[in-house]
């Protein structure tokens, strides 16, 4: 009996793992498209009726009412947002949502584009796709646009965001001007660098454990229509690291990004916004029939250095269609030219739908035979980090994205007193080394990160113990504000939201 079940399980596992593309292509893609049409129509209507700013206060009052109800109910279990786990931009689903008191924060609108102040005020569920579609036609953009369309302002403020402009502007938190929060006692508090600065610095990386975000004011900068992007192939690790560090530190170009295709081969990209493209051909890399961006970049290893002009929004969302390179494991022929022309317009399958329909076999596969991690380390440690990653997992491409880390108070800052250039080393894929053990290998890499005063992005699994976690992330300001605003009762500790133990 047991043998039959195991055989059946194995067959089922084989089917769902190896033929997930059938389900993804014929069911998830059309469903993702319908979902997209619905949200596009809704956004359009909201804008036309111009109701969003008027509704904001009412929606905040609704959040406050729920917090008061929580208190009246005894306030024994901590609160978190009611956003379903399958919608979060992470490999895992948060287990704690099942046991904690869920607060509905249905705040989805861009509230105001203030051209005079050069800010945009957003509700927390505004997505990056929605924001660039709003701002770019008006000639504006936010300085750091994390590249996946579905990332939300709330998640990026409470967690973090990084992009190829971060070597100039820093992380997502560094382009924020103010936050509006509903605290654990139901009061509404605003904070900025000028007003309540300590709370302002304590919010990023707190993962919703200080208060519930109801609005964020974010800087905007003028946008041009295109990006002129230079591709510089490199053929040794020293050249890759040397060129990447030079371009990041010089800040000569608005965009800097690197993709390593093996330990010694990569392409370093630098770009700048340009207004028009006289005499240049425009490559609309965002069009459905265009090759996946990372494979397009790889071609420059053979072709040699080159440049091209790309529409701004296509550039911003360049990694969306292939979810960096993760879609190749789900729809292996997704970059085939026939597939692209016929079905490419529906790509990518919605991350939320992929998560919602994930079977146990697939969850196990991603848990035990896949790595999705972003290691944030000083640029000076990049060569060593690539070497450590190569030995441990041999995953390629690797994503290199520089960011300036100012010495601000809060969870994440450099070891010394000065700002420092860091790099996000993104490791996404199937380990090629024979001895991969999800826990041991990740812990080994985390130890290295900690040894160079680096950090781990917390949408990904952290295998740190609580003490190790508190050593990696400076909790001094966080602890003060947890006490001051009674958050210790109202919300869980950040570790209990982000550690592997808190996630399915
Ligand atoms: C001044 C101004 C204020 C606005 N205020 C609000 C507001 O208060 N609340 C609100 O919700 N919206 C607001 N919007 C946003 C706007 O209604 C939506 O973004 C709309 O869907 C974009 O329409 P468009 O025809 O201008 O898009 P385009 O500029 O034509 O968009 C370009 C492409 O972006 C894609 N796209 C559009 N929306 C999304 C998305 N959400 N995710 C991913 N891709 C997308 C489409 O595929 C489209 O092909 C505002 C826009 C403006 C200009
Ligand atoms: N390029 C980049 O920078 C990328 C970044 N990411 C990561 O993805 C995550 C963002 O994903 P997304 O799906 O948008 O967000 P999530 O739903 O994953 O939210 C992330 C955290 O923020 C908290 N949070 C979100 N909104 C609020 C709010 N209004 N009030 C209080 N807390 C809130 C959530 O709390 P709760 O658990 O209570 O819901 C959760 O702990 C970030 O952690 C980011 O670092 C991922 C890919 C790319
Ligand atoms: C640029 C930064 C900082 C991070 C990029 C991370 C992404 C590569 C991952 C974020 C969420 C991930 C998920 C998946 C792939 C990798 C991400 C997009 C899946 C789609 C993989 C297949 C699973 O069944 C569902 C996953 C959901 C989350």
CATH class of the largest domain: Alpha Beta
Query: What is the CATH architecture descriptor of the largest domain?
Result: 2-Layer Sandwich
Give the C-alpha Rg: 22 Å
Instruction: For the largest sheet, list the strands in their spatial order.
Output: 13-10-12-11-15-16-14-17
Structural class category:
alpha+beta
Please give the count of helices. 20
GO molecular function, one term: FAD binding
Keywords: Cholesterol metabolism, Endoplasmic reticulum, FAD, Flavoprotein, Golgi apparatus, Lipid biosynthesis, Lipid metabolism, Membrane, NADP, Oxidoreductase, Peroxisome, Signal, Steroid metabolism, Sterol metabolism, Transmembrane, Transmembrane helix
Transmembrane segments: 20-38
Membrane topology: Single-pass membrane protein
SSE arrangement:
Blueprint: H1 2-18, H2 20-49, H3 52-72, E1 79-81, E2 101-103, E3 110-114, E4 119-122, H4 128-135, E5 140-141, H5 153-158, H6 166-169, E6 176-183, E7 188-192, H7 197-202, E8 211-219, E9 221-222, E10 226-234, H8 237-250, E11 255-260, E12 266-274, H9 293-298, H10 300-303, E13 306-311, H11 312-316, H12 337-343, H13 351-356, H14 360-369, E14 371-378, H15 382-392, E15 398-405, E16 420-429, H16 438-451, E17 455-456, H17 466-472, H18 476-484, H19 487-490, H20 495-498
Parallel strand pairs: 1-2
Antiparallel strand pairs: 3-4, 4-8, 5-9, 6-7, 6-8, 10-12, 10-13, 11-12, 11-15, 14-16, 14-17, 15-16
Flavin-adenine dinucleotide binds at residues 39-40, 43-44, 46-47, 52, 109-110, 113, 127, 129-130, 133-134, 137-138, 149.
